Amino acid sequence: MAILTPRLLRPKLILLISRAFSSPTIVDSLKPSLPLQLHGHTNTKRSIQWVFLGCPGVGKGTYASRLSSLLGVPHIATGDLVREQLSTSTPLSKQLSEIVNQGKLLSDEIIIGLLSTRLEAGEAKGESGFILDGFPRTIKQAEILEDVTEIDLVINLKLREDVIVEKCLGRRICSQCGGNFNVASIDIKGENGTPGICMAPLLPPSDCESKLITRADDTEEVIKERIRIYNIKSLPVEEFYRSRGNLLEFNLPGGIPESWPKLLQALNLDDHDEKQTAAA
Ligand SMILES: [Zn+2]
Does Cell division show up as a keyword for this record (predicted)? Predict the structure, then answer.
């Protein structure tokens, strides 16, 4: 399969997303309480269409995935889409692995192609709404997305850079079961008005302890370079959404136990979580 050009992809994505609009599933209680005044569509009967931004290692996958289970919308991470594609033996996969192996970034066209295929497959299964993670990463991607659908809310997750570095250095994978763990125990005292930050490690069960490995690209130098590149590329994307009034900045106050309730509060979803917990 040849890589489709944006001209070919765009109508496909429009079609998909316009179909998604007509789907009646929506978290009714959620819409009026959204934290930001979102242009015009508050009465539209459709699921949430959110975007997560955040530096590699900030944990946006974790929070996006939790919100996706809570709200019953798919969590679509472009990184996962690329990995899934690479694990197949299609001509596209061959093309992708050549690009990735040369250390180059995948083009907007390729990423949008993967995303539109994913949305189409989800739509066929009756999915509605989405939480995007890892997309849009460039202004061009944000513009294409804006052309085809409305994004209700963009959540920009932030964490101190020294903490991100420490967290990434603490990542471990079990070479046997593939489990993800983190041995970093972060306890930074607050000073000069800056709040301190505590993050407990996520230790492996004893069976995995002796089989832990570190990702080859989790060295301090590589992590810092990833953050530097991310910051340069993401600033215009943040500004794009800030100027449209739908960027929610969220500073992570710590690990999941501290951050999750605060994030729900910021999203006016704290009641939602209680109901879910009570129903569970
Ligand atoms: Zn294991």
Answer: no
Q: If residue 50 lies in a helix (H) or strand (E), which one and from where to where? A: strand 49-54
Residue 102, both tokens:
């040369």
170 alpha carbon to ligand 1 midpoint, in Å?
A: 16
Q: Considering its fold, how many domains does the chain have in total?
A: 1
CA distances in angstroms from 85 to 76, 82, 107, 145, 216, listed in the order given: 14, 5, 15, 22, 22
Strands 171-174 and 212-213, by their bridges, are antiparallel
Query: pTM for the complete prediction?
Result: 0.77
- How large is the average pLDDT for residues 60-85? 93
| Containing structural domain, residue 245 | 6-160+232-266
Instruction: Identify the CATH number of the domain in which residue 23 sits.
Output: 3.40.50.300
Residue 186, in any domain of the structure: no
Annotated catalytic residues are: 60, 137, 171, 215, 226
Distance 84 CA to ligand 1 centre (A): 22
pLDDT on residue 47: 87
Distance (Å) of CA 167 to CA 60, 198, 204: 13, 11, 15
The percentage of the chain sitting over the pLDDT mark of 90, rounded to a whole number, equals 54
Cα(10)–Cα(6) distance, integer angstroms: 6
Distance 209 CA to ligand 1 centre (A): 7
